[in-house]
Amino acid sequence: CVSADQFSPVDCNKKLIGAKYYIDGLNADLESSINSTTEYLSPRDRNGHGTQVSSTVAGSFVSNVTLPGLSSVSIMRGGAPKAHIAMYKACWDVEGGMCSVADVWKAFDEAIHDGVDVLSVSIGGSALKSLDVEIDIAIPALHAVNKGIPVVSPAGNGGSR
């Protein structure tokens, strides 16, 4: 885990075992530096998307859960509660959401090098529009699959398209 804006290595624990971020490519593409008024310059998630995805995938067992409008639930958990999470932040909440191909590819490369078991690529909205999925995501995903690492990605919330 790296130390950066609003994020410290002590934020990592038995569940979150790694956290890195990649911004040099986007800064070069924009020919300026992203400032910390619109985004945390760190692995930290400003809008909660990465946190929610991580909880859905690998949330630990929690007892005596109550949900508004529903009766009490005895136990709630993510899909793989014993899994560990390593976060690789490569997209940024600037101009509605942007990713640099260089940052995305570097994140894939480091995740592969770090020995992850599964890569979940969750890029949506305007950030996804800044990439050519057939090249910018498919090529590093193929590299991961060739190393024996499954790559999964949500279909999105765009309806029937």
UniProtKB/TrEMBL annotation:
Superkingdom assignment: Eukaryota
InterPro entries reported in the protein's UniProt record: Peptidase_S8/S53_dom (IPR000209), Peptidase_S8/S53_dom_sf (IPR036852), Peptidase_S8_His-AS (IPR022398), SBT (IPR045051)
Keywords noted in UniProt: Signal
Any GO BP: proteolysis
Domain Peptidase S8/S53: 29-158
Pfam families: Peptidase_S8 (PF00082)
GO terms, molecular function: serine-type endopeptidase activity
Family: Belongs to the peptidase S8 family.
Protein name, entry field: Subtilase family protein
Species of provenance: Arabidopsis halleri
Lineage: Eukaryota, Viridiplantae, Streptophyta, Embryophyta, Tracheophyta
